[in-house]
Amino acid sequence: MNYKDKYNEWLDFDVETRAELLNINDEKEIEDRFYKNLAFGTGGLRGLMGAGTNRINRYTVRKVSTGLADFIISKFSQNPSIVIAYDTRYHSREFAEEAAAVFAGKGIIVYLFDMEMPTPVLSFAVRYLNASAGVVITASHNTKEYNGYKVYNQYGGQLVPDEAKQVIQFVNKVQDFHSIVLTDIDQSILMHRIGDKVLNAFLTEVSKQSIYDGILKIVYTPLYGAGNIPVRSILQKYQVSVVKKQEMPDGNF
Question: Which of 140, 210, 233, 241 is catalytic?
Fold first, then answer.
């Protein structure tokens, strides 16, 4: 199937996707969106947001989540589980919930954070909850047009190359977007919303690492991101001035 065939197929996915694609007047952009699948590397997916196989969107998130779910099930036959976090990027929460719907649909226990969290908290949560894997929706340092899907193993670290190769094999087996089973995450007994308990456990462990007990004056900017609450919680015993203009989450940053 060439890029044009894929484009025509995606026109029938949903009204929003169809409208976005029909609004593209540049044939080169259409080709770029569909000439290949978004690559899955050691860290996971990262790419421009938008409709197409070479973009990150609800459908490519569902596809990679299906492949990852099959990988997890192949490794953990007893009560497989996954932790999902997301940052302040556009669509991050939406993509996290799409992933959760896929994992629960596959029979995997899902721990989904109920607010934006930075990646270190996700890494800690995987170990704290004895989960089989973790996912964080973030584009890290990339600009606002991007988002990403990072995968962590049961040790809280990013997938090593051998693990990534196995996940890629499972992801490549997913050919039909419409055959992916989604579960209502508000109704599923496999869904668990997590928040303060896990975050507080993380903050407790971080506080143990401090070797300084004196007076500190600190200027801190969250840069509109997910570190605002965790960082300020850790630094609350010091004199912290927050850059107000960059305090609140903003996906347009």
Answer: 140
